[in-house]
Amino acid sequence: MSLKKEVERFILSEDYKPMVLKEIYKRFKAKTREKRRKIREVVKKLEKEGKIFRDSKGRYRKLGEDLKVGTIEFTRSGYVAFVITDEFEEIAVPVEDTKYAMHKDRVVVEIVGTWRGLPRGRVVRVLERGLKRVVGVFDHKGTFGFVVPDDPKIAYDFYVAPENIDGAKPNQKVIAEILKYPSPGRNPEARVVKVLGDLDDPSIDLPSVIVKHDLPEPGEFPEEVLKEANAIPSRVRKKDLVGRKDMRDRVIVTIDGEDAKDFDDAISVEKLPNGNYLLGVHIADVSHYVKEGSALDQEAFRRGTSVYLIDTVIPMLPFRLSNGICSLVEGKDRLTMSVEMEIDREGRVVKYDVFPSVIRSKKRMIYERVNEFLEDPSSVKEYEPFSELIHNAVELAEILREARRKRGAIIDIESDEVKVVLDENGQVVDIVPRKRGIAERLIEEFMIRANETIAEIFDHAGLPFMYRVHEEPDPETIFQLKNYLEAMGIRAKFSHNIHPGMLQKLLEKVKDHPLRSSVERLLVRSMKRAMYSAVNIGHFGLASYAYTHFTSPIRRYPDLVVHRLLKLYLEQNGYFTPEQIDKFSKVLPKIAKHCSRRERVADEAEWDLIAMKKVEYISRHIGEVFDVVVTNITKFGLFVEIPEKSISGLVHISTLDDYYYYDESKNMLIGRRKGRIFRLGDVLKAKVVRADKIRGEIDFELVEKEEKEG
């Protein structure tokens, strides 16, 4: 056995007791420099893998039941942080036990008890610092300065020495590089590397979000990646067609949003003589161009997903691929992976076929225009030649949707997404709800069905695969939802065995309630996040026993992995070799965890930018009165929302017309003198009095009748 293997086996064995490096050298009689170097390499490798860590006395300790490694994430409130382990286990750490760790650091925690049903821990060591730069507001104090981070999850201000100020002025937004991290009795230090601009300049929002979430600059890729991308031909060649089904004569179209540039998916829908439907879902064959292990592949993995930041995209792949050869552009030959499914009137897939193909999209359709066409065909003349396809698609989507409703899927959640309308200077002109029409829903139904069909193939075959999973909610969070509904006067029955159909019935109950969007939001919050996994536990929200992401390989890395597995499955007639099974069993869980994390970062960046733009929008309406709905009640006031803008804020209890006390059991504020009661769902009129873009806070005050009537 090699020395390296021997050292690793010893350190990870049952008999190992914590030792300093010198003791390990002694144990292996390492007298030569070379032998010591080899031992150090093993120790560093195990440390990096999170299997051991060095404690405050310099001893290397194994991680066991009471010691875990993970990434620490602080909350906005600052009272508690959570360490997320590589196995996605959550450990609560009270702020006083975080030991100079900062948001996003990789830490070792010792489990010391429980906190609200979670393990409670304390940080015993910071293994690796997560943040290298911060974005925040510069403030001057005498000769030196401070950077106050935008992110409330970073609990420290950063000291900036006079020589590191770089011309920054008070109240300017800056990017600073961290020079020293917090330690006993010392604030962290940083130097200003870029002045973004004044706080009221809307152009600073995007770079602020990019730095805060450590995202790449839009359009920027490493040289090696661009070199590989530029070497890829810009059109389909004859040799690319070998082994592909030619579907260029078929009526195949794409349907996307107006501003979409990367078209991943195309559809074809025919009615068969037996009354069934033939649905074709044709997905860009990105894996033909992005080879495993290439620089393009490694960069796509690192990014995990494309990030959509209002009018800016940070793509997973260079534009030459994402908007070029991989995009299913109208009238161009494109390589695809096709799933053809024969679907009966009950929404069941009675037959399917999966194969590599070549298509030529006959039309690039737009959601809004398809919806207009369905209202009045004469208003969109250019879609008339595709009338049969569109009507077949609408019929089939309704059948699939009804089949999902019957099996208990949650299908009525209307997204509270908004569209931020900007002018040419990047100023917010308006915030409007994103409406989903029939066209959006039919594409959603077809993609869900294609994803299920691919996942079921691998689930039945029992082969390693990348699933999209969604756990069922914790009973405790469902209990909170029940209390919330009862405070609204809605009786909800929940059995111990939670089924998505129960939650769907609940949504039908609150269909016309003013608090519908709040109930939906709470419902979404009470459910766990969907994520990627190599283990199939099903998808709770969709009521699918097997689900994956196969339909967007241009913008999601897991889809690209699924395509590679699918091609291998088809090439080898449904068989993987023992070596392949071993390889995928090891690598897929790691890819799944990494991609779940990257998806979360992308979501948070998107939400952050939209939140900034909401504050920017409302700050130009200070003093104006809006209709608002009470969405939450606390002892310090009412949280209210302007429903059509999804803009939320606080009416502080100190601004109300009476002394109010909070009845926790009924979730109400009750006036002592006048007896006025505020309940969830109340529709009120409120004036915007303050908007703080840095903190993301908006304050309202209620408007009484005299003021309302002017």
Give the overall shape.
globular
How many distinct beta strands? 33
Q: State the domain count.
A: 6
Helix content: 25-40%
Spatial extent as radius of gyration: 28 Å
| Count of alpha/pi helices | 16
Q: Could you give a short description of this structure?
A:
With 710 residues, this protein is α+β, with helices and mostly antiparallel strands.
Explain what this protein looks like in three dimensions.
The termini are far apart. With 710 residues, the chain is of the alpha+beta class. It has six domains: 3-62, Arc Repressor Mutant, subunit A; 67-128, OB fold (Dihydrolipoamide Acetyltransferase, E2P) (Beta Barrel), CATH 2.40.50.700; 133-199, OB fold (Dihydrolipoamide Acetyltransferase, E2P), CATH 2.40.50; 223-457, no CATH class; 475-527, no CATH class; 621-702, Nucleic acid-binding proteins (OB fold (Dihydrolipoamide Acetyltransferase, E2P)), CATH 2.40.50.140. Strand 15 and strand 16 form a beta hairpin. Helix 4 packs antiparallel against helix 15. It contains 16 helices and 33 strands. Residues 623-703 form the S1 motif domain. Keywords: Cytoplasm, Exonuclease, Hydrolase, Nuclease, RNA-binding. Its EC number is 3.1.13.1. It is found in: Cytoplasm.
